[in-house]
């Protein structure tokens, strides 16, 4: 079961990639500050031109590779200490493994990500003083520092403020996640904290004249006539939407968790999809055209080449590329069979990073499209999250200890329970059963004798309301009835009942690694649908005229 730590196979790739990383990060500033002469090197000039067209992109790519290596090394260096300090947990789906696994290793990974973002600042927002280097002063120092609060003229103050607000939000979710890992904070407290933490982000969105309009669908045609406008300005409601979106993103990854690699895997796929979406907005063809790369082509000022839209997507890339690197490094440790757990720290942190990219890159509605599996999982979970149906501490699927086959976990409603199923909860379960997202067990399903005295139609158990269980239900995996009976018996009696030998679940064989692949498949499908909606359906539903 045990596998070798990823640090063991790092040497060769590090030797090949670290010099490349260094060049991507350092060449442009070195030339611009006059430390490197580019006048005789076509390739250096090409790098400079790329940097001119896409400010910050090359360092972002370089830093994302660095983030990968640094994360693999940092997690490896910290895992023993974390285990010794009590940050460890039992792997719920490995009943035969007795040793605990170090937990909260999302903390060093998140710290690496933050450090990389800090290091990025001077490479993106530096000002080349007049007369220095001279090939391509990106922003000119046209006034120096006079001590006024406006600061250095020519400096992209607003963009830096946007970037710093993202750092603030990230730090707040890092603290919240870590506190949750240490103190297991109650839902009613941890739910609203991200709403307050989003205030700096809302303010810079306002200062950046972020749009608050909602385009009314042009199809069906009567909708725009009925509303009387093509765009409805939501005003303050839009800020509420952003705030709730950031709260949703912060929590949504944590509730789609519990099998090895699923938390990091989903963050990795969403971040990569956002990167792809960002790249689609960059004039890559222009950048690669011989005409633009030729040394005789005059370097245009950034403002003439860089539209607002390109700038926003470059900003999003500066957050997402390092996240891809960090997630890939963490996944090397957390993939099945996991050598570390990431903890709530990582779940909240990654969710917030994705929210920052979407909100501050001004594509919050598109962002939501890339969270389709998380939105589904959240909506499905609502009856349990909001107390209509009891919510067990862990809702991850169960494992059959002999075959390692997974089957859906249950919430049970024994007779005389302190938390009986009420009307609303029952109605919600019946709707979800009709949609085939869950399986409900009734007294009559358990056969003669069991749950005697109850009406045959009484709901005695249901599969937990999560995407992971739904995938198993849809695939046709069945919970062994012995397990349902045992759970009912052990929850209705005060003293614990010994678990009987449970037969292997009926239906297709799905183990933890396979369920991870299936969940990642769903996430990738979600991204494909998101791209389809964004670039195809949106053109039909939201026509320009
Ligand atoms: C959330 C879920 C809970 C799920 C848990 C799993 C909700 C409302 N809460 O709770 O249903 O069971 O995440 O993370 O949906 N673990 C594994 N394998 C893994 C990852 C985690 O066995 O790959 C176990 C370990 O015992 C670990 C524990 O889950 O110690 C961490 O759970 P925690 O993050 O504290 O749970 P919550 O976030 O509260
Ligand atoms: Mg968690």
From TrEMBL:
Q: What is its EC number?
A: 2.7.8.15
Any one Gene Ontology cellular component term annotated for this protein = endoplasmic reticulum membrane
Q: Where in the cell is it found?
A: Endoplasmic reticulum membrane
Q: Membrane as a keyword?
A: yes
* A GO biological process held by the record: dolichol-linked oligosaccharide biosynthetic process
Q: Does the keyword Transmembrane helix apply?
A: yes
Alphabetical keyword list: Endoplasmic reticulum, Glycosyltransferase, Magnesium, Membrane, Metal-binding, Transferase, Transmembrane, Transmembrane helix
Listed transmembrane segments: 12-36, 56-79, 100-121, 160-179, 191-216, 236-257, 314-333, 345-363, 369-389
Looking at its record, which EC class is this enzyme?
transferase
> Its annotated pathway?
Protein modification; protein glycosylation
Q: Name one GO molecular function term.
A: glycosyltransferase activity
Membrane topology, record value: Multi-pass membrane protein
Q: Which reaction does it catalyse?
A: a di-trans,poly-cis-dolichyl phosphate + UDP-N-acetyl-alpha-D-glucosamine = an N-acetyl-alpha-D-glucosaminyl-diphospho-di-trans,poly-cis-dolichol + UMP
Q: Name where it mostly resides.
A: endoplasmic reticulum
Which cofactors does this protein require? Answer: Mg(2+)
Tell me which Pfam families the record gives.
Glycos_transf_4
Recorded hits in PANTHER family, A to Z, give: UDP-N-ACETYLGLUCOSAMINE--DOLICHYL-PHOSPHATE N-ACETYLGLUCOSAMINEPHOSPHOTRANSFERASE
Recorded family membership: Belongs to the glycosyltransferase 4 family.
Function field = UDP-N-acetylglucosamine--dolichyl-phosphate N-acetylglucosaminephosphotransferase that operates in the biosynthetic pathway of dolichol-linked oligosaccharides, the glycan precursors employed in protein asparagine (N)-glycosylation. The assembly of dolichol-linked oligosaccharides begins on the cytosolic side of the endoplasmic reticulum membrane and finishes in its lumen. The sequential addition of sugars to dolichol pyrophosphate produces dolichol-linked oligosaccharides containing fourteen sugars, including two GlcNAcs, nine mannoses and three glucoses.
What's the protein called, per UniProt?
UDP-N-acetylglucosamine--dolichyl-phosphate N-acetylglucosaminephosphotransferase
Q: Which organism is it from?
A: Jaminaea rosea
């Amino acid at each position: 079961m045990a596998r070798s730590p990823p640090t063991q196979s790092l040497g060769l790739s590090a030797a090949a990639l670290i010099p490349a990383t260094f060049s991507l990060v350092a060449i442009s500033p070195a030339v611009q500050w006059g430390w490197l002469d580019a006048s005789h090197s076509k390739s250096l000039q090409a790098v400079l031109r790329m940097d001119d067209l896409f400010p910050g992109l090359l360092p972002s790519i370089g830093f994302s590779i660095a983030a990968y290596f640094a994360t693999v090394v940092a997690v490896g260096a910290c895992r023993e200490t974390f285990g010794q300090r009590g940050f460890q947990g039992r792997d719920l789906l490995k009943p035969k493994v007795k040793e605990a696994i170090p937990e909260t290793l999302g903390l060093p990974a998140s710290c690496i990500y933050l450090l990389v973002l800090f290091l990025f600042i001077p490479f993106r927002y530096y000002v080349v003083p007049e007369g220095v280097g001279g090939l391509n002063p990106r922003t000119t120092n046209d006034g120096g520092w006079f001590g006024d609060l406006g600061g250095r003229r020519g400096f992209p103050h607003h963009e830096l403020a946007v970037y710093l607000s993202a750092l603030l939000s990230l730090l707040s979710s890092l603290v919240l996640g870590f506190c949750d890992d240490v103190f297991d904070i109650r839902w009613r407290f941890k739910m609203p904290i991200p709403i307050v933490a989003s205030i700096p982000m809302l303010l810079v969105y306002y200062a950046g004249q972020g749009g608050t309009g909602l385009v009314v669908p042009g199809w069906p045609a009567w909708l725009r006539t009925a509303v009387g406008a093509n765009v409805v300005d939501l005003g303050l409601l839009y800020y509420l939407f952003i705030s709730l979106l950031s709260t949703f993103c912060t929590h949504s990854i944590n509730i789609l968790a519990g099998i090895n690699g699923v938390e990091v895997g989903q963050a990795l796929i969403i971040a990569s999809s956002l990167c792809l979406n960002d790249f689609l907005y960059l004039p890559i063809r222009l950048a690669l055209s011989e005409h633009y790369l030729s040394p005789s082509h005059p370097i245009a000022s950034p403002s003439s080449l860089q539209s607002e839209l390109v700038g926003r997507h470059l900003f999003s890339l500066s957050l997402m590329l390092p996240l891809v690197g960090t997630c890939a490094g963490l996944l090397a440790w957390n993939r099945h069979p996991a050598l570390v757990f990431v903890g709530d720290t990582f779940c909240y942190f990654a969710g917030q990073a994705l929210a920052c990219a979407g909100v501050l890159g001004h594509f919050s509605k598109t962002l939501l499209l890339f969270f389709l599996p998380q939105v589904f999982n959240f909506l499905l979970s609502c009856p349990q999250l909001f107390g209509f149906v009891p919510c067990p501490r862990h809702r991850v699927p169960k494992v059959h200890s002999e075959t390692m086959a997974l089957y859906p976990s249950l919430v049970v409603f024994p007779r005389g329970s302190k938390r009986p199923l009420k009307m609303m909860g029952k109605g919600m379960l019946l709707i979800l059963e009709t949609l085939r997202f869950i399986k409900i067990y009734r007294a009559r399903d358990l056969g003669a004798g069991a749950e005697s005295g109850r009406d045959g139609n009484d709901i005695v158990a249901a599969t937990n309301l999560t995407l992971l269980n739904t995938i198993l239900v849809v695939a046709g995996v069945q919970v062994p009835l012995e397990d349902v009976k045992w759970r009912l018996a052990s929850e209705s009696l005060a003293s614990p009942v010994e678990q009987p030998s449970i037969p292997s679940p009926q239906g297709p064989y799905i183990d933890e690694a396979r369920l991870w692949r299936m969940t990642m498949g769903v996430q990738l499908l979600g991204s494909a649908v998101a791209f389809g909606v964004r670039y195809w359906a949106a053109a039909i539903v939201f026509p320009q005229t």
